[in-house]
């Protein structure tokens, strides 16, 4: 790797350094706080990717993590717009979102209480909120208004127990719950996969969200190895990436299929119809996480 990187950086460095050394103070301060002052100077300012490999690895991980968090703020927006536009939850599994949201709120609490860097899990909080909105809309458009209210209330109570100083869920119990998110994350994808298969089409399932979930879970495998190396979290992301790849393959296979067997196709928001988001950077979801 050194033989590949050194010649490339040697060519770019004379053009890069005059620019990087003139970055505004707030940007320098933010960069140094993310990757340590030493790594910021070495990798970002001087574009030295060879001298200290650990700094290069950390900088890449932080860059990926920050991109995931930024992109995750809109990862479920196409799905929300699709549901609202069609006023239909066809092809979108509530049980899948319920299990995924349950896994996400536990994962968020675990990361916060373990004191892990925000760059390794920040998208979990953003996607969690969007998941609650999607799940509520699914119930609403399925004629289960009372169920939607109960769903939101139930998660509010759970959040109080996980994040509040109630003493109900201590670190040991939280560790057990975190272990449970691995099968939860797996089970959360199975209803979605089955729903697409049963309907013979993706319906209102957002292709944009599915693709970003896949890319995000793959990227999170790298950031977890680089910054936390937590076996529980890593296992979840590996399994999530595998199942997200199945769901992504289904969206490709059923690309032009009707919303469900025996029904006419319904309009489904795609990338260019919803938010105009064109970045190739991954998000998590799932997950950005876990599908992240």
From TrEMBL:
Coarse class of the primary localization is membrane
Q: Does the keyword DNA repair apply?
A: no
Q: Where in the cell is it found?
A: Membrane
| Keyword list, A-Z | Membrane, Repeat, Transmembrane, Transmembrane helix, Transport
- Membrane-crossing residues? 118-139, 146-164, 176-197, 232-255
Q: Which InterPro entries match?
A: MannP-dilichol_defect-1, PQ-loop_rpt
Is tRNA-binding among this UniProt entry's keywords?
no
Instruction: Give the top-rank taxon of the lineage listed in the UniProt record for this protein.
Output: Eukaryota
Ranges annotated as biased composition (Polar residues): 275-292
Membrane topology classification: Multi-pass membrane protein
Q: Where is this region: Disordered?
A: 273-292
Query: What's an example GO cellular component term for this entry?
Result: membrane
Family that this chain belongs to: Belongs to the MPDU1 (TC 2.A.43.3) family.
Extract the PANTHER family matched here: MANNOSE-P-DOLICHOL UTILIZATION DEFECT 1 LEC35 -RELATED (PTHR12226), MANNOSE-P-DOLICHOL UTILIZATION DEFECT 1 PROTEIN (PTHR12226:SF2)
Name of the protein this chain belongs to: Mannose-P-dolichol utilization defect 1 protein homolog
């Amino acid at each position: 790797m050194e033989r590949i990187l050194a010649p490339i950086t040697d060519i770019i460095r004379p053009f890069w350094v005059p620019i990087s050394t003139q970055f505004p103070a707030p940007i320098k301060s933010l960069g140094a706080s993310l990757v340590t002052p030493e790594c910021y100077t070495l990798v970002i300012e001087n574009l030295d990717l060879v001298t200290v490999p650990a700094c290069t690895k950390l900088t890449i991980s932080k860059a990926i993590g920050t991109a995931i968090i930024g992109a995750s703020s809109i990862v479920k927006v196409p799905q929300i717009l699709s549901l609202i536009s069609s006023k239909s939850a066809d092809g979108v599994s509530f049980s899948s979102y319920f299990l995924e949201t349950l896994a996400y709120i536990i994962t968020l609490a675990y990361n916060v209480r373990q004191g892990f860097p925000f760059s390794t899990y920040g998208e979990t909080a953003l996607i969690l909120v969007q998941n609650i909105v999607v799940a509520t809309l699914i119930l609403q458009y399925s004629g289960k208004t009372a169920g939607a209210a109960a769903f939101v209330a139930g998660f509010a109570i759970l959040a109080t127990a996980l994040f509040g100083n109630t003493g109900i869920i201590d670190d040991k119990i939280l560790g057990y719950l975190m272990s449970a998110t691995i099968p939860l994350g797996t089970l959360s994808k199975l209803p979605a996969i089955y729903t697409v298969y049963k309907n013979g089409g993706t319906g209102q399932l957002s292709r944009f969200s599915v693709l970003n979930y896949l890319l995000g879970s793959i990227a999170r495998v790298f950031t977890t190895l680089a910054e936390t190396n937590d076996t529980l979290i890593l296992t979840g992301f590996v399994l999530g990436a595998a199942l997200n790849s199945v769901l992504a393959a289904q969206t490709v296979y059923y690309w032009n299929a009707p919303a469900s067997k025996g029904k006419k196709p319904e309009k489904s928001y795609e990338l260019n119809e919803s938010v105009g988001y064109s970045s190739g950077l991954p998000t998590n979801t799932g997950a950005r996480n876990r599908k992240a």
